[in-house]
Amino acid sequence: MERVAEDFGYIVSLHPKAIQGAWNPSGCHTNFSTNEMRSTEKGLEAIEAAIENMSEKHFEHINVYGQDNHLRLTGEYETGHISVFSYGVGNRGASIRIPRKVASDGKGYMEDRRPASNIDPYEVVSIIMKSSFNYQPPSLFEFIYP
User: Which parts of the sequence belong to the GS catalytic domain (predicted)?
Assistant: First the structure.
């Protein structure tokens, strides 16, 4: 993208609020699901359990969700506020949105709406995986010397 823009004299910006004003900022909403979340039996229950776990690590998520994300997560323009964790069905102003169809089907995925457009996708996937399962990797020292 940057290379093509260069040919036409443009500059690409991944800044979450590249131009100030009354319009939506740039995010990298991240959809997430597991086999259990997509199953018919306990899908929605698994989604809500993951969200509960993620809520406890909200500020750890914010720390890796992009530079200058505070300019984006203001609580306006279909964003939640950076200092408040929230979730809801069909709520585009929540930290995490459960799509209406997912709620009615009782299975599917969730959308983390907090990541900014300038994130490192590997860090985002890592923290979502760790916090949604409440996973703490063992230290190398404990692994070598039980």
Answer: 1-146
